[in-house]
Write a structure and sequence with these properties.
Blueprint lengths: L2 H11 L3 E6 H7 L5 H4 L5 E8 L2 H5 L3 H28 L4 E4 L20 H7 L4 E2 L5 E2 L7 E8 L19 H5 L5 E2 L2 E2 L1 H8 L5 H12 L3 H8 L2 H12 L7 H4 L11
Length: about 260
């Protein structure tokens, strides 16, 4: 099987970007998150991306951007599953890496680290570079993409292209981050986690529960009937709670010109 077979298949399934990297390139940079741990005889990593719609990201109602993120995640999972089955039918192995979940939940990771770095895999596969905002920046769409991957035992050719970071003197993501989590030194994930989940995120839920245990019986009843608990329920049902897209929307790379 050749690179073109993989790329053609993914494009037919609706992927906007496709890149292929070698396992050895990824493993050298991230031994703790090596694809070998997921598929012992892995040789290649197939990374693909879908673009956010500009209209959803521009919406002043955060739920619109969040609901589209869910739709993109579902579509990426569908494409990844279809690719894995395509590979298996042709006698190869393929493990799909979900675009967001599950993640390693502990005090160290803060629920922000998965079993595999899709961002680094995308860089290794030539899709872009890591910007000051800590996100993958693609020449075509900037950071307005979501990623998934399939790790396979096919020995494919790397189609990586060298994309130099071109953030330059731009600091828009730093200036627009409401959590003040982005700086020239990097991204403080702890600060980010306190804001990105919003009123229904894990930090808010922990705070709610801590406050709950110290209340009177009547106050507990009020809190249980409050919109806060309803939002936690919805977030748990949906699977995500995002309340900030500033690091994505403020980046000028790949940004379309607004219609007059």
């Amino acid at each position: 099987m050749e690179n073109s077979d993989i790329t053609d298949f993914l494009m037919r399934e609706g992927a906007d970007l496709v890149g292929i990297g070698k396992v050895e390139d990824f493993a050298q940079a991230s031994p703790k998150r090596s694809p070998i741990d997921i598929l012992p005889n892995a040789k290649s990593i197939i990374v693909f991306a879908l673009k956010h719609s500009d209209s959803a990201l521009d919406s002043p109602i955060m739920r619109i951007s969040m609901s589209e993120t869910l739709a993109i995640y579902h579509e990426l999972c569908r494409i990844g599953y279809r690719l894995s089955r395509f590979l298996e039918k042709n006698g190869f192995l393929g493990v799909t890496i979900h675009p967001a979940y599950p993640v390693e939940m502990n005090e160290e990771t803060r629920g922000l680290v998965g079993d595999f770095s899709l961002r680094y895999a995308a860089v290794s596969a030539g899709l872009g570079f890591i910007g000051k905002n800590g996100l993958l920046i693609t020449p075509e769409y900037g950071p307005r993409v979501r990623l998934a991957a399939v790790i396979t035992n096919i020995d494919l050719k790397s189609n990586a292209r060298c994309i130099e970071p071109n953030c330059g003197m731009c600091t828009l993501c730093i200036e627009n981050c409401p959590a003040k989590a982005i700086s020239l030194e990097g991204v403080d994930t702890r600060r980010c986690a306190k804001v990105v989940g919003g009123p229904a995120g894990l930090n808010s839920m922990i705070k709610f529960l801590i406050e709950l245990v110290d209340q009177s019986k009547e106050e507990i009843k009020k809190m249980i009937r409050s919109s806060s608990l309803w939002n936690f329920h919805q977030a748990l049902q949906v699977g995500i709670s995002y309340d900030c897209f500033s690091c994505i929307t403020s980046c000028p790379v790949g940004k379309r010109l607004k219609a007059l």
